[in-house]
Amino acid sequence: MEFLKFLALIGITNLIVGYGWFIPAILIALPLQIINKSFAFIVQRLSGVALMCLVMVNIAYTLSIDNSIYVYLIYLFLGFILNFYSIIQSMQSMRDHSRKNSFDFNYMDETETNIRLDTAVSLPFCILFYIIVSIFPNLSQNEVIYLIMDLIYILIDLPVLGEIILVSGGLTGIFLIPYALFQIFFMYIVIKSDLNQ
Known about the structure:
Blueprint: H1 2-20, H2 22-32, H3 37-64, H4 69-100, H5 105-135, H6 143-157, H7 161-196
Helix pairs in contact: 1-3, 1-4, 1-7, 2-3, 3-4, 3-5, 4-5, 4-7, 6-7
């Protein structure tokens, strides 16, 4: 039962933080674009990645505190897969959107720059930050994370909407993890074949 709760919570987190991060990301990026668009992009991206890492580790730690270290490690692994995949998915979305706007060379150049930044900075940052927070889970115990978790639990406790959110979060967690593993493996194969050419 705890495992299903974990899947539901990481699915809901992926939905809520993933879509809800849009507004704070704009608020972060807009003033920084005065300095540099790439700088604004990477700051808002790393902020979102850090937030997702903290929330995922918090969920893994909270739900495994009464269990063995192995449960914690399994939860950490599954949470990491979703975090890592969300960056890859965002990169693919940017690439697809860029192809649709292939007539706008400035937009294509900016998108390719952002994808290179994600590859060079966001993906390694996700791995490193997730490992650090996993080793020191108390870093995920702070007011911002508590606020997000309280919001998630408030939404889950709503009469009808809460059940819909819980089911959709659970389905997201159940189906997205195998899909994310497949996509990450596929990306690895593509990169490996490109390097061998």
